[in-house]
Amino acid sequence: MEAAFFDLDKTVIAKASMVAFGRPFYREGLISRRLLVRALWGQLVYMHLGASEEKLARMRESVLALTKGWEQARMRGVVEETLADVVEPIIYAEAAELIEHHRANNQLVVIVSASPAEIVEPLGRHLGVDRVIASRAEVDGDGRYTGEMAFYSYGPYKADGMRALAAELGIDLDASYAYSDSATDLPMLEVVGHPVVVNPDRVLARVAKERDWEVRQFVHPVRLRDRVPVPPAKHTAIGAATVGALAGGFVWLRLRRLEAARREAEAAAAAAAAATRSAASWLRRTRARPGWRGGGASSRPRA
After folding, report:
1. Within 10 Å of residue 104's Cβ, how many Cβ atoms?
2. How confident is the model over 5-32, as pLDDT tens digits?
3. Residue of 9, 181, 185, 201 marked active site
4. Which of 11, 34, 112, 145 is spaced 20 to 30 A from 120 at the CA atom?
């Protein structure tokens, strides 16, 4: 059996999944407005600057501390009730297309994520994947989170989870695929025969170039029910060309707007200069008239 393993955040969906559910958690009273704002700011930093292992470790500890005492059933309920509204608009069309492609080739499709199983499992069902490998928090006898982690699906532990699933189901990892955006997922990418980097951070982009790995750009979040199938990119150059074309179009439009603004400014300046010359000419003519005296009302032309 062959398989395709997909990282979740910024690979299948365009946001960090925990942040994506921030608003529903806030509405249910699980987190405060301050924590919601901090989460959204953290998402911006994560999206544009990436996250080091140290930062991700701090994020994990923060999440564990935050969720300590939450009822597992309540968290599952919030995710199930809001899943379609939260996740549907941020699924990459390119990822959905690849998932369908691998399923059509009778390959097992697996989501591998550091996010909690309470989020990843229903999302996996929504996407129609076969299995998920996700982080699992410890729960006490009352069904509440203890603040400790039973299994952290991150870094090398993602690769461990993939090997365990391969042993269980007889998956040929050398013939399998893995997709991820982050250098922290190098162990996940290295364990398969066909690693593919998606929207890579700077470190992963450099590694991919050094190892001649395939690179893809996923740029079209779309609702599954509204999606029109889009053929996946065949090579790095195609994805780069698409992004380059979009960037070039933006720059061209921006330059046109700047040129129009420059012309408007020049026209306004010319009009102001003409008005100034006209006023100066009028003043010279007025001063030349007999009986003109400067100052007060008498400085105006006589009827």
Report:
1. 8
2. 999 988 998 877 766 666 777 776 766 6
3. 9
4. 34
